[in-house]
Specification:
Oligomer: heterodimer
Shape of chain B: globular
Strand order of the largest sheet of chain A: 3-2-1-4-5
Structural class of chain B: alpha/beta
Number of helices of chain A: 3
Largest interface: A-B, 29 and 29 residues
Largest sheet of chain A: 5 strands, mixed
Strand content of chain A: 25-35%
Distance between the termini of chain B: 30 Å
Largest sheet of chain B: 5 strands, parallel
Order of helices and strands of chain A: HEEEHEEH
Chain lengths: 103, 210
């Protein structure tokens, strides 16, 4: 996915406008990695997030279902790894694409 | 570390292992919101008294985030921790009695549960305290919304910061493994190093190579 950069133009030279421009720049940052993450969503659900994607691709009630789907996607889209996260955001386990192909 | 009063945010929160993911999310969010987290653990000088360090951080920070969740003991027969409410008091005192820029200080007070503090610190009953329920995403949302309201800066959504926090956390482990850190090295990484990694990651994400 292309990465958008926001330039601060002449019209935005006041301190406040610069602050806002910086904020927009952060908002438009796109991550360029090629891994797929299974992350917590809401109180109990799980979502699949591909690095560089704008939003979660799908939401699941069950983590193991989300993990299976993420692995399928990884094989289809040739990403480098699937990373499972805990509900607190910390990484729990990483499946390398090579190990997925061997199964 | 930054000496810019207008950008510094003093972070006063628990340092126990259970709180660690919340602390990391708090630091990550403040950095993504373009503030500079200042924390007692950022320096490790045995010759410096802790309270002097804290007083200096409070004096040099326009913003402060206090998490008073540890008004409860973590285990039975343990005593609660009073450092956080004490440092909150110092900060509020600095704002009340300080002159000039010190009177412009702004604070966010976080707690695990919404109304529990009224029992143990009833003097804060008139303050607007936010509860995170020990949920990392809730803490990110509370912090981001407070920064937005207080600084009037355009910010990414809490949801986006949460997703970035997940991705960054896995990046950190991967990067550390590449650099031959073992589990204990990662677990006991100094706060200053953690902050440096976030800044490096943020720079890479925001200034990608063509």
């Amino acid at each position: 996915m292309p990465i958008k950069t926001i330039k601060i133009g002449k019209a935005e030279k006041t301190a406040e406008a610069k602050r806002h421009a910086v904020g927009r720049a952060i908002q438009d940052v796109r991550l360029t990695g090629d891994r797929i993450h299974v992350i917590a969503y809401g109180k109990e659900q799980w979502g699949i997030l591909k690095e560089g994607a704008e939003r979660l691709s799908k939401i699941y009630d069950d983590k193991s279902e989300a993990v299976s789907r993420a692995k399928e996607l990884a094989l289809k889209k040739s990403v480098s790894a699937v990373v499972l996260h805990r509900r607190n955001g910390m990484p729990e386990k990483t499946f390398n694409i090579k190990s997925l192909k061997l199964k | 570390m930054n000496d810019d009063f207008e950008k510094n945010v003093f972070i006063n929160c628990p340092f126990d292992p259970e709180y660690k993911p919340l602390l990391q999310a708090l630091i990550f969010t403040t950095l993504l919101c373009r503030l500079e987290p200042r924390i007692a653990m950022e320096r490790d000088d045995c010759g410096e008294e802790r309270i002097d360090k804290i007083k200096e951080l409070i004096k040099n920070s326009k913003y402060s985030i206090h998490d008073i969740s540890r008004m409860e003991p973590l285990k039975r027969k343990e005593l609660p921790r009073f450092n956080m409410p004490f440092e909150l008091g110092l900060d509020l005192g600095c704002r009340t009695y300080g002159e000039g820029k010190l009177s412009t200080k702004k604070s966010l007070i976080l707690e695990k549960e919404l109304h529990r503090y009224r029992v143990v610190i009833s003097d804060l009953s008139g303050n607007d305290i936010r509860a995170h329920n020990s949920d990392v995403k809730e803490l990110i949302r509370n912090t981001r919304n407070w920064v937005y309201t207080t600084t009037d800066t355009d910010l990414p959504s809490a949801n986006r910061i949460w997703r970035s926090f997940n991705i960054f956390s896995s990046y950190l482990v991967e990067k550390c493994r590449e650099e031959d850190y073992d589990d204990k090295d990662i677990e006991e990484m100094p706060i200053k190093e953690y902050i440096d990694y976030i800044i490096k990651w943020r720079n890479v994400v925001e200034n990608p190579k063509p």
